């Protein structure tokens, strides 16, 4: 496990809990369990999230591949017909509205359900929202490492009312990584596309890091 | 004059798409139904609608069926204070007297699992809602773009 910054005790507890869930620890109820969706927008809290995953064609993609560009990262899964499309629709709107600046921003859909998503046409899914969105899936270990690196929470939850008998609880925010690879901020779920656009434009024009 | 099958079909498709008026069933009014186009049929689809209760007594949505899904179910999305989202099954939600049951992105959705075919933009499909008191009503749900965020005006 690599971390640019050590985890807080709370985050360590959460990760221990998440790993228990991943191991199929039955009987755990999650309704009361807090999830670490990431630090708040504290400027001095800089770290560099890293990932090493695969795109839909099986090519290895790492965080280093995107230096010089902004990364807009969303953790999700394709069997999610509400929250995930809502966020991807916003990302698509932002990419359309960025116009010629769009080349400087790479949106990424990082699957927290990689085994299922990789077999279901991840590229087709992301392209249906916007051709610029890159869908990534990896091994369970690489996915876990990526989430830890971003300090975000996800967990598989057994649920008879979900397709395939399970759903994924996951951090619902969008994460912004800068051209140098630094974590810059998160946009909470439901942040209007116009607000994300304005923030990105301010950064691209040099008014913000 | 003979109406061809395809002309008839085109007519019913159009009738479905332009359906804008609320459908009345007993004291209930169903309105604003739409579904998001699916990508193929292997992932669940999502649909939304509003049920208003114009009566003096609460009713309950106790059943759902549609030929497009072998497992339609109401789900609620919740986002915790820490930003973690999850979905949970909602069983027999109440439509309070004078109130409404509203399905919308980020809140409650109709999860159309085990699709029998893709939900294609521009098409419609029937959806039967079964209410405890008001009984059964079938509406036509228009399928909008995958980037739609609400019903058509
Ligand atoms: Cu659902």
Report Rg of chain A: 16 Å
Gyration radius over CA of chain B? 16 Å
Q: Report the CATH superfamily of chain A.
A: Glutaredoxin
What is the structural class of chain A?
alpha+beta
What global shape of chain B is seen? globular
By DSSP, the count of extended strands of chain B is 11
Catalogue the unreliable spans of chain B.
Answer: 1-18
Keywords (chain B): Signal
Organism (chain B): Rubellimicrobium aerolatum
Pfam families (chain B): PCuAC
Protein name (chain B): Copper chaperone PCu(A)C
Describe the structure.
The complex is a heterodimer of chains A (209) and B (153). By secondary structure, chain A is α+β, with helices and mostly antiparallel strands. Chain A has 6 helices and 9 strands, in the order αβββαβααβαββββα. In chain A, helix 2 crosses helix 6 (193-204). Chain A is globular and about 50 Å long. Chain A starts with 8 loop residues before the first helix and ends in a 5-residue tail after the last helix. Chain B has one domain: Immunoglobulin-like, CATH 2.60.40.1890. In chain B, strands 1, 2, 3, 4, 5, 6, 7, 8, 9, 10 and 11 form an 11-stranded mixed β-sheet that branches. The chains are: A alpha+beta (209), B mainly beta (153). The A-B interface holds A 30, 34-38, 78-83, 85-86, 89, 92-93, 120-121, 124-125, 128-129, 153, 157, 159, 161-163, 167-173, 186, 188-190 and B 36, 39-40, 42-46, 71, 73, 75, 77, 79-89, 105-106, 109, 111-114, 146-147, 149. The structure holds copper (II) ion. Copper (II) ion binds next to strand 9 of chain B.
In short:
The complex is a heterodimer of chains A (209) and B (153). Chain A is built from six helices and nine strands; from the N terminus they run αβββαβααβαββββα.
């Amino acid at each position: 496990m690599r971390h640019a910054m050590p985890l807080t005790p709370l985050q360590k507890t959460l990760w221990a809990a998440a790993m228990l869930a991943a191991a199929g620890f039955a009987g755990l109820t999650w309704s009361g369990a807090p999830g670490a969706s990431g630090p708040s927008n504290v400027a001095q809290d800089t770290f560099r999230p890293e990932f090493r995953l695969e795109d839909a064609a099986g090519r290895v993609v790492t965080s280093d591949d995107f230096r010089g560009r902004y990364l807009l990262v969303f953790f999700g899964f394709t069997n999610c017909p509400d929250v995930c499309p809502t966020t991807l629709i916003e990302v698509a709107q932002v990419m359309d509205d960025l116009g010629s600046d769009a080349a400087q921003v790479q949106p990424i859909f990082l699957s927290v359900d990689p085994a299922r998503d990789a077999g279901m046409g991840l590229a087709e899914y992301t392209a249906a929202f916007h051709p610029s969105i890159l869908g990534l899936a990896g091994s369970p270990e690489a996915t876990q490492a990526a989430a830890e690196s971003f300090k975000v929470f996800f967990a598989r939850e057994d649920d008879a009312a979900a397709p395939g008998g399970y759903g994924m609880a996951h951090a619902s925010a969008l994460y912004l990584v800068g051209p140098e690879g630094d974590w810059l901020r998160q946009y909470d779920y439901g942040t209007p596309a116009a607000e994300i656009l304005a923030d990105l434009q301010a950064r691209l024009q040099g008014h913000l890091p | 004059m003979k109406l061809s099958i395809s002309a008839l079909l085109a007519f019913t498709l159009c009738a479905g798409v332009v359906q804008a008026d609320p459908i009345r069933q007993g004291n209930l009014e169903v309105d604003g139904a739409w579904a998001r186009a699916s990508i193929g049929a292997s992932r669940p689809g999502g649909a939304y609608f509003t049920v208003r209760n114009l009566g003096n007594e609460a009713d309950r949505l106790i059943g759902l069926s549609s030929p497009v899904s072998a497992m339609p179910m109401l789900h609620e999305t919740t986002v915790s204070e820490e930003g973690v989202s999850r979905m949970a099954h909602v069983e027999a939600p109440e439509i309070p007297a004078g109130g409404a049951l509203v399905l919308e992105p980020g809140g409650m959705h109709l999860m159309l699992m085990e699709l029998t075919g893709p939900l294609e933009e521009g098409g419609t499909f029937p959806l039967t809602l079964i209410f405890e008191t008001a009984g059964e009503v079938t509406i036509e749900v228009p399928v909008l773009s995958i980037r739609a965020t609400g019903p058509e005006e």
